[in-house]
Amino acid sequence: xxxxxxxxxxxxxxxxxxxxxxxxxxxxxxxxxxxxxILSDLNNFLNGWQLILQLLHFMLRSKTTKFIIMGPPGxxxxxxxxxxxxxxxxxxLATGNMLRNxxxxxxxxxxxxxxxxxxxxxxxxxxxTGVVLxxxxxxxxxxxxxxxxxxxxxxxxxxTIQQANAILENEEINAVLNLDIPFQVIVDRIRGRxxxxxxxxxxxxxxxxxxVPGKDDESGDELIQREDDKEATVRARLxxxxxxxxxxxxxxxxxxxxxxxxxxNLLVEFRGKYSxxxxxxxxxxxxxxxxxxxFTTYN
Length: 299
Fold this sequence. Notes:
CATH topology of the largest domain: Rossmann fold
Strand order of the largest sheet: 2-3-1-4-7
Protein name: GTP:AMP phosphotransferase AK3, mitochondrial-like
Radius of gyration: 27 Å
Keywords: Kinase, Nucleotide-binding, Transferase
GO molecular function: AMP kinase activity; ATP binding
Number of domains: 2
Shape: globular
CATH class of the largest domain: Alpha Beta
Organism: Octopus sinensis (East Asian common octopus)
Largest sheet: 5 strands, parallel
CATH superfamily of the largest domain: P-loop containing nucleotide triphosphate hydrolases
Number of helices: 10
């Protein structure tokens, strides 16, 4: 607000200077001078109102905070999302949950989506887009965090540039938060997981190794590595994610160039190896847009 008022004051002072300079100019004659003063004051008046309207628009838009969070599988996106919800008053939105709700309520979109899911097919973009936009339309005055859920390729949103464009046309997004974790770090993190099937206990060869390699601490049973945790599977998922999301990230980075004059970009990237390393930066950024309830630190 102080910036707007400063600009209005600057226009007012400039008008006074112009009026004084014009009134001291005799070569144009007083009718011309008077007309120039009137036009100058009118221009100043319109500029002032334009700034006031910008202020009102900002005040109305800034009442809510809306973010999309993206990150490859294994990036810690779920952990960061949980921390955001703990420290900020925000609703968590996942496309999978939205779709299940539509199907349970047997809406037209839900019934249409169910036909594809029952046959293991990809739900068409227009159906997923309709489900998400319907949900968001009822949350215009609420803060939310939309999880791209790209691991779930049948319901992920946004997964195409068309879907990204649809949400930007209908919603005022503060930013797209992208967790940029080196893929090799993710591979090393996931391939070290070993599971005890009967109990569900999970070990990690580096961070939480079993007392006896390959054995469960309590039962002594053999540990297994789930198919999803094997290196070849992890790399295949990361390659797929990179292929699908690279155009999206480029779109978010460059399509809204008009945001430059607001001093920020739509795409905000957080780079690091661990959630605890990234979290303070995520918290600090979101706190610029909405007041935090707290700041939880993690060792």
